[in-house]
Design goal:
FAD/NAD-bd_sf, 397 residues, 22% strand, FAD/NAD(P)-binding domain, seven-stranded mixed beta sheet, 14 helices, binds flavin-adenine dinucleotide, 18 strands, alpha/beta
Length: 397
């Protein structure tokens, strides 16, 4: 097969690797608009489960990713002036720099015979004449997808909060949450290590806090200086690095993920809020499923349909969970005044569908009972949606 991948992020590079492993006769080119070695963002988190998948799918890159990652098993949450809670020996997490991850995948892809064309921006399929398969792995703003937005049924839900993805020279040994009060509301950061000399620091606040602090009109240098001051304690006085480009998160869904020989992969197909730290793992998982479907089905349409069906079934529920996680932070005033242990406990239960509907203190007190109520709540929701659908049908009929 002659395959053109548009986008040299984790999805495109990993797909190219897996296809070449299965069948070295594939002719694969990855087109990346940026120069080699340049990327956006800082480190990304992932969990044990991903490492097992990577070891199985392509041991050399799995081992290199494990070797290039840092590991943590403790979590720290600070609420400035009130409490610091440390949870030791919790779930094991890993962090790796995006630059490092992409370098590992690019080197492995090249060693298998994949061509990587840097500084090669592709705007449409017409630039890729002769390809049997065009893979749009060009990220959340995919140009290939946007050209056919109606066919794909693209929908974007904007998050309410403002966020910025920065780095810092502070090395966080534990995954760290830090909440800081300001006269304009709370601002908080998520910090995690990813290498020997840098950590990631994602900073988030409500739009009112953002404009109240003057961040909407601050120069980049002033914004960094203000954020360093606000987070001086968790940063231990270390500087923040990077360009403060504020955004709201875009949760992207598509009704279908393929059109003829064009298929969407990774963030081009779906996004999940960064507070669940899953987008990269999902992009790599998409690559594995697509490679598998292409070698397990006899025709292209059947393979793309199977990939789309299987991955949508996995990803749709995760997108809902991620939305709940994002909403927990959007509703921070509901939780921030609780006694610290209660607040942190609910922070770790922010994926609950029940929590937004129950007074937080009651939810906390119900504790384990609430966990048991969750399936009952899901059943009620499901029943509710059936009833609504039937009454809609009755009204339409
Ligand atoms: C603040 C933040 C924190 C995050 N933290 C985590 C985390 O901790 N863990 C995690 O798993 N995920 C995290 N993510 C999500 C993760 O970054 C993405 O899900 C992941 O990068 C998706 O990979 P991808 O290959 O699909 O897209 P991308 O990584 O976006 O790669 C797309 C590539 O396509 C290239 N491109 C775009 N257009 C063109 C074109 N026309 N022609 C050629 N090339 C093009 C781009 O330059 C880019 O290199 C986070 C996201 C954000 C915003």
């Amino acid at each position: 097969m002659k395959i053109s991948c548009v986008g040299g992020g984790p999805a495109g590079l990993y797909f190219a690797i897996l296809m070449k492993r299965i069948d070295p006769s594939h002719d694969i080119t990855v087109h990346e608009r940026d120069p080699a070695g340049s990327t956006y963002g800082w480190g990304v988190t992932f969990w044990d489960e991903l490492l097992h998948t990577l070891y199985g799918a392509d041991p050399p890159s799995g081992q290199a990713i494990a070797a290039g990652s840092v590991r943590w098993d403790s979590w720290v949450a600070h609420v400035q002036g009130r409490a610091t809670v440390v949870i030791e020996q919790g779930e094991v997490g890993f962090g790796i720099g995006r630059r490092e991850l992409l370098a590992i995948l690019a080197e492995r892809a090249r060693s298998l015979g994949v061509t990587i064309a840097y500084e090669s921006e592709i705007d449409g399929e017409e630039d890729l004449a002769g390809a049997d398969l065009v893979v749009a792995c060009d990220g959340v703003n995919s140009a290939l997808r946007e050209r056919h937005a109606e066919h794909f049924g693209t929908e974007v839900a904007l998050g309410r909060n403002m966020y910025v993805w920065l780095g810092t020279t502070k090395i966080f040994e534990a995954f760290t949450f830090a909440f800081t009060p300001t006269p304009h509301g709370w601002i908080w950061c998520y910090g995690y290590g990813f290498g020997k000399d840098h950590s990631t620091c994602v900073i988030e606040c409500s739009p009112d806090t953002w404009s109240g602090l003057g961040l909407h009109e601050a120069t980049e240098a002033d914004a960094l200086a203000l954020l360093e001051k606000l987070f001086a304690e968790p940063l231990d006085g270390h500087p923040l690095v990077g360009r403060p480009r504020w955004q709201t998160f875009r949760t992207l869904t598509n009704r279908t993920w393929h059109r003829g020989n064009l298929v969407l992969l990774g963030d081009a197909a779906h996004t999940t809020h960064y507070s669940v730290g899953a987008g990269t793992a999902l992009a790599l998982g998409d690559a594995a499923f697509l490679a598998d479907a292409l070698h397990g089905e006899s025709g292209l349409e059947a393979a793309l349909t199977r990939y789309e069906r299987q991955r949508m079934a996995t990803i749709r529920p995760l997108q809902k969970t991620a939305r709940l996680s994002a909403q927990w932070y959007e509703n921070l005033p509901r939780y921030i005044g609780l006694p610290p242990m209660e607040m942190f406990s609910l922070l770790f239960q922010r994926h609950s569908r029940l929590l937004p509907h129950v007074p937080p203190r009651l939810y906390y007190r119900l504790g384990r009972v609430a966990d048991r109520l969750e399936p009952l709540y899901r059943a009620t929701e499901w029943l509710g949606s059936k009833v609504t659908r039937r009454s809609d049908e009755a009204a339409a009929g």
